[in-house]
Design a protein that fits this description.
Shape: globular
Radius of gyration: 20 Å
Structural class: alpha/beta
Largest sheet: 9 strands, mixed
Number of strands: 9
Bound molecules: NADPH dihydro-nicotinamide-adenine-dinucleotide phosphate, 4-oxobutanoic acid
Helix content: 40-55%
Distance between the termini: 49 Å
Number of helices: 13
Oligomer: single chain
């Protein structure tokens, strides 16, 4: 199967490499074109523009930072819309809001193309290992066509119905994740300040009802103040913002998420946006925790 791939950041690079490893023919594009070199070395063809990739491939996947990037790659000059049309499918796996997805869907459909939104749960390592959870919605026939690719990229795909449902599900999941990260960080600080070993707290948590892969994976590096980015903090804050906006639209009170968002915003203002989202711990430490936890 031949696919185009737009966006070779942390996730896109791992996903495109995974498709190549599994025998897919992949044509890649990235705004900073030099980032295509590594994929070319693995066997990818390089497209000069999003339009060139769509012209070449029946199916094109995108994995871009945020709504503004997702819209730009579709609507700007040399964008997806210039070449999408009958018999071609566009699959946006970026985390965006439902309004962005709907706008792209409408434009692609007007050109007689097909569109699926398919944001993912899971970070850099699951992307490398093909263990993502895919939250798809939109054109059912295109979804069916993409199953061979989704089976390589993920351990499970959900088809959630009409466009927007994938985006909303993803935002709900990440809102919970961002709020949980804040509670976790506060707990590490509280343990430390009250004379307990934060490391022992990690061991205790891991054996109880709230044990989860995030605590297990991020806890030890948070205790060391090490935040090598798997999921950049700036993207987590974007997701909190979009989730809070979804809460506004639906009159859902979200005081916990709102407080967590403030901590992520503070972290961004301190220049931590490109670090892993667990770097919010630096903010919470500064707000009353010790310098150690
Ligand atoms: N990292 C993670 O753990 C996860 C991330 N996600 C979501 O996946 C998406 C990608 O994340 P990730 O790979 O981590 O992000 P990165 O920041 O590593 O990569 C972002 C990508 O978007 C491109 N981009 C940014 N702005 C524009 C623009 N205006 N026009 C064209 N391209 C643009 C970047 O190009 P350039 O190289 O030129 O800057 C790069 O390819 C995000 O929506 C994120 O929320 C979802 C699940 C997990
Ligand atoms: O959007 C990023 C999600 C990261 C994860 O699910 O581990």
């Amino acid at each position: 199967m031949e696919v185009g791939f737009l966006g070779l950041g942390i996730m896109g690079k791992a996903m495109a490499a995974n498709l190549l490893r599994h025998g897919f023919r992949v044509t890649v594009w990235n705004r900073t074109l030099s980032k295509c070199d590594e994929l070319a070395a693995l066997g990818a063809t390089v497209g000069e523009t999003p339009a060139a990739v769509v012209a070449k491939c029946k199916y094109t996947i995108a994995m871009l930072s945020d709504p503004s990037a997702a819209l730009s790659v579709v609507f700007d000059k040399d964008g997806v819309l210039e070449q999408i049309g009958e018999g071609k499918g566009y699959v946006d796996m970026s985390t965006v809001d439902a309004a962005t997805s709907c706008k792209i869907s409408e434009a692609v459909k007007q050109k007689a193309g097909a569109f699926v939104e398919a944001p993912v749960s899971g970070s850099k390592k699951p992307a490398e290992d093909g263990q993502l959870v895919i939250l798809a919605a939109g054109d059912k026939a295109l979804y069916g066509d993409m199953v061979p690719a989704f089976d390589v990229l993920g351990k499970k795909s959900f088809f959630l119905g009409e466009i927007g449902n994938g985006a909303k599900m993803k935002l709900v999941v990440n809102m919970i994740m961002g709020s949980t990260m804040n509670a976790f960080s506060e707990g590490l600080c509280l343990a430390d300040k009250s004379g307990l070993s934060p490391q022992t707290l990690l061991d205790v948590l891991d054996l109880g009802a709230v044990a989860n892969p995030m605590f297990k994976m991020k806890g030890p590096s948070m205790l060391q103040g090490s935040y090598n980015p798997a999921f950049p903090l700036k993207h987590q804050q974007k997701d909190m913002r979009l989730a809070l906006s979804l809460g506004d639209e639906n009159a859902v009170a979200m005081p916990v998420a709102a407080a967590a968002n403030e901590a992520f915003k503070k972290a961004r203002s301190l220049g931590l946006g490109d670090l892993d989202f667990s770097a919010v711990h630096e903010v919470l430490k500064g707000a009353g925790g010790s310098g150690q936890a």
